[in-house]
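[step 3/7] inverse_fold.run input=structure_tokens len=291
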């Protein structure tokens, strides 16, 4: 499977952001991609840096005019396309939703972000209702895609449930970066932890992982902070956690990486972690904390 990733910077100009995404999709197709993954909330700025009700105006129902644009891109390029959109489900009810389009432009399925963070400059709980679709892979012509979104990537339970439900690939559209007051050492610790935990999901589940992050500096329009420097460094790892590709931290990238799906079967035969799970002894995993 040839997987295309589109790592881009974003501004308030929605049309320009979409144009970049469409150019990235076409560039990946030209390199032979059959699956293309876009980053989290690729149509606009990362608006969760502050809590403002006006930002809800950025949301759209699914399907929408924006969905139609990306549906056409999937059909035109004959690729399966993973997008990330701000969904208006009902008045006062909004989700961070990944929509997957088939090669014919139809919606193959969607995933609503399950884990919602609330950190300085990442005030997502103000905007997003936790997902209610569960950890179900989306069946497509290129395989069963275990699509998760950003903060989900820190949770081994999410990756495991996707794997147990038959996912052939773990995919994480992402928007993560550094706050300006972080030291160089702290920045390196954060990035290393981010990449390491996802490579761990690959190892623990014997599955390839595709993480596509945004890049560039986005200012805090309220002036409270100095904004976020999104660290890019999108990457693809194989089922033993081996790095197949890493993007730079400071530039936009359209790249295609070949993933050998047979390696999942091969790796699981030599490292049969699913076989050796003690499912009779994990009841307490459902508790918040074991006192």
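[step 3/7] decode complete -> sequence:
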């Amino acid at each position: 499977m040839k997987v295309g990733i589109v790592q881009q910077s974003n501004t308030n100009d929605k049309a320009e952001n979409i144009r970049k995404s469409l150019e990235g999709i076409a560039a990946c197709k030209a390199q032979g991609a059959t699956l293309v993954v876009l980053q989290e909330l690729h149509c606009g700025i990362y608006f969760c840096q502050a809590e403002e009700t006006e930002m809800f105006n950025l949301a759209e129902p699914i399907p929408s005019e924006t969905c139609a644009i990306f549906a056409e891109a999937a059909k035109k390029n004959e690729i399966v396309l993973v997008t990330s959109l701000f969904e208006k489900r009902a008045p006062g009810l909004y989700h961070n939703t990944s929509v997957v389009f088939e090669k014919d432009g139809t919606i193959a399925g969607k995933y609503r972000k399950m884990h919602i963070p609330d950190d300085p400059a990442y005030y997502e709980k103000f905007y997003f209702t936790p997902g209610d679709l569960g950890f179900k892979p989306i069946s497509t012509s290129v395989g069963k895609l275990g699509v998760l979104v950003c903060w989900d990537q820190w949770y081994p339970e999410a990756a495991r449930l996707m794997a147990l439900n038959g996912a052939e690939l773990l995919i994480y559209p992402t928007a993560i970066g550094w706050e300006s007051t972080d030291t160089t050492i702290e920045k390196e610790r954060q990035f290393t932890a981010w990449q390491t935990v996802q490579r761990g999901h690959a190892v623990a589940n014997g599955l390839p992982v595709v993480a596509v992050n945004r890049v560039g500096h986005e200012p805090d329009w309220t002036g409270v902070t100095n904004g976020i420097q999104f660290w890019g460094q999108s990457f693809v790892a194989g089922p033993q956690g081996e790095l197949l590709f890493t993007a730079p931290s400071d530039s936009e990238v359209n790249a295609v990486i070949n993933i050998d799906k047979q390696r999942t079967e091969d790796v699981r035969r030599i490292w049969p972690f699913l076989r050796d799970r003690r499912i009779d002894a994990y009841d307490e995993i459902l508790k918040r904390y074991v006192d």
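[step 4/7] annotate
Residues 68 and 284 are 44 Å apart (CA to CA).
The chain has one domain: 2-277.
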